[in-house]
Write a structure and sequence with these properties.
The complex is a heterotrimer of chains A (about 260), B (about 325) and C (about 260). With about 325 residues, chain B is of the alpha/beta class. Chain B has two domains: about 240 residues, 3-Layer(aba) Sandwich (Rossmann fold), CATH 3.40.50.300; about 60 residues, Alpha-Beta Plaits. Helices cover about 35% and strands about 30% of the residues of chain B. Chain B is globular, with a radius of gyration of 25 Å. Chain C has about 260 residues and is mainly alpha-helical. Helix content of chain C is about 70%, strand content about 0%. Chain C has a two-stranded antiparallel ribbon with strand order 1-2. In chain C, helix 2 packs antiparallel against helix 3, helix 3 crosses helix 12 and helix 12 packs antiparallel against helix 13. Classes of the chains: A mainly alpha (about 260), B alpha/beta (about 325), C mainly alpha (about 260).
Amino acid sequence: MSMYLEMIRVRFLMMLAYRTNYYSGILIYSINIGAYYFLWSAIYGGKEEIQGLSVAQMTTYVAVAWMARAFYYNNIDREIAAEIKDGKVAIEMIRPYSYLGMKTMQALGEGIFRLLFFSVPGMIIVALTFPVSFDASLTTWMFFFVSLIFSFIVNTHINLLTGMMTFFLFNNTGLIRAKRVVIDLFSGLLLPISFYPDWAQGLMSYLPFQAISYVPSMIFTEGFVGQEIYNALLLQAFWVFILLIPIRLTWILAKKHLIVQGG
Amino acid sequence: MNVIEVQNLRKEFNSYSSRPGLAGAFRDLFTRNYKVHAAVDNISLTVKQGEMVGYIGENGAGKSTTIKMLTGILTPTSGSIIVNGMNPHKQREEFVRTIGVVFGQRSQLWWDIAVQESFRLLKKVYRVSDEDYNHHMGHVIETLEIGPLLNKPVRKLSLGQRMRCELAAALIHNPPLLFLDEPTIGLDVLVKLKIRKFLKEINEQYKTTILLTTHDLTDIEALCERVVLLDEGKIIYDGKLNQLQAHAVEGKQIEFEFLSEIPRTSLPGSDNIQWEQKDATTWLGYINGDEQMVSQLISDVVQRNPIKNVRINEVSTEEIVRKIYEEGLALT
Amino acid sequence: MFNISLFFQYASQYLKTRLTYRVDTAIEILSDLLFQAVNLIFILIVFRHTSFLGGWNRDEIIFIYGFFLVPYALFTSFFNIWDFNDRYIVKGEMDRVLTRPVHSLFQIIMERMELESLFGVITGLVIMGYASVNQGLTFAWYDVLIFMLMVIGGAFIYAGIFISIATIGFWSDSRTDIMPMMYNISNYGRYPVNIYNKVIQFVLTWILPFAFVGVYPASYFLNKEEWYGYAFFTPVMGILFFGVAILLWNVGVKKYRGAGN
């Protein structure tokens, strides 16, 4: 256990070492929030609300979605892909820890860093620049944080899976890029799921992506109320456990593959 | 004719150090400790056409930095460089057509395509005519024995094979001046010998001037009459290799192997001789003096003791260089 | 002349490499298409809930997006320098580039070209075609020439901005995130600038002129006469920004510190 804590700490220090990322990360997210803020303001025009969300809720939705992304987003898929390609994974296999567990812990270290140094100061900047409301109740904040942890786990699961695909594909960069695009679109980061046509919403309810961004953002903006919150959290928890199955299976297959191919 | 003329060349770098620990990392976010460091410190050097010069020094002595300035990659902080009659950095594109460069640690060839495709691309880059290419490269390919490798992609070659191809690639435009930075690093003895033989040949055939840096001093012994020794950015020796040996090592080492065990007392003693016992029957004598004294010592010892074998040891360049860096060298 | 034939030499080598990795190339084109589709889907869905965006209708916005894709495709095919600092400065590949008798920037452009991104030109043309038919737009024969001029201008603006940023690597080898930041800012150019506030409009027009890659030139083809002045300024901005970038590059190369120091 202390070993995994150490990994979180090391990754945290590594993140700290890159000083410009620290400032520019916040700026990048603010730039994106700004773009969507203006876009949504123009889309709303004079309208009171679209799909049950007011323009103020929409702005908050965008800001929270991006700042939550700062926490759950990580590059472990690319790292895993690189380590498989360099043959480092074969060495990692003989180490006395779980490779995937270690990667998850590194992601967590990165996530905590980003939460403290990106999201929190970023939120302050965004709150000063754009009309965002953070006057959610204490229970909403609590539900939001629980939901955020689930987001992180679901997203990390998906990253582990995409990263491991490198065992079976020669070059994985295309898939990794495609995954990012799909997540941005289907997780509700760019558009709340409720804006999609009904058939698309039906389709997406069978996919894990909305557990990543749509759920925490809707909880925070109080787009979900009462029973809806519990249902959404249960859905996230469902995906947290279900995704463990393909991860386990892929890992077993990957190990076989590694033995046959010799790294 | 001087191919390389360097005067008071100097290159400074800014470097910064990280502070330790978490608090240090936080402080580094805002300010950093900078300091100026001269990687090359006022060196002057001339190389004539057809010379093969060994440029040696420890890691960080400034070898690579010098080579990079001579090849036009880096701009000097101060001083003047004329190579092949040009200023390497100012006239870069024209200049680099007159030199060949091999970086042992970095590939010049395209990783994914066949070697000959890389050659074809470089032939185009250096604007070499078909006629010149066929005439000159046919010979290079044959001597380096890389004919069978030409249609393999670079990533499939072994290090030795790749290095021979790298060398050929640097010679596509038949440059009168060749820079080799660690060309034999990590290679096995046979490949090393092949490369040395080849370098000697082109040096004789085309009067190609070669400047070579290496950690393997046997390369230098095999190829270079002249060595330039660098320490902390300064030239500490520039001259003939054999004179370096004469300067650096005062006297000779003589190894006596006796038939039986011999006590120290039965060996001649004088201020100029130091004895060291190697094993029960073998003694090493260090003598400070010329050949006359050496032969005098041998006859003294042999007269008094039954002897099995006598050997005068040549001191290797490696030992000399080690000695220089450990003890310093009295410059002449 | 020499440079052009050299370019084709590199391009043919590039195609040979790509043909060896056919599956990767296909996946790359597919993921490009997906990326282009996402933005289109966004526009389509948004217009399910509104009929105007800052006074522009659905088909106009789609046309602007389609136009944007064409110069952007040219830019991503030939100016792949987003990892210049890592690849060329930190790993020292610049050493090798500088020992060859061709302009260093031109070499890097040729080494890093990704011709499969040119597929975006087709996507862009298809999207523009769809939007034009929907609105019943008509074009004169010389519009083709103007289109090419505007596209090249737009690609040069992108190239100019990103090359200028890459040159920072010559002065400082520490990692910076300005590159990704710029990619994010460039997204602003995909929508009409009049939806942003005055400061952002000014920045997108004169400082980081991404508006010249999308809405301004596109407005010429959409017959939005109030924007014509800006539209015709596109090639000028392109030459200006590209020229400055090359100037910065040439100064920067002299400051190159080499790797491993």
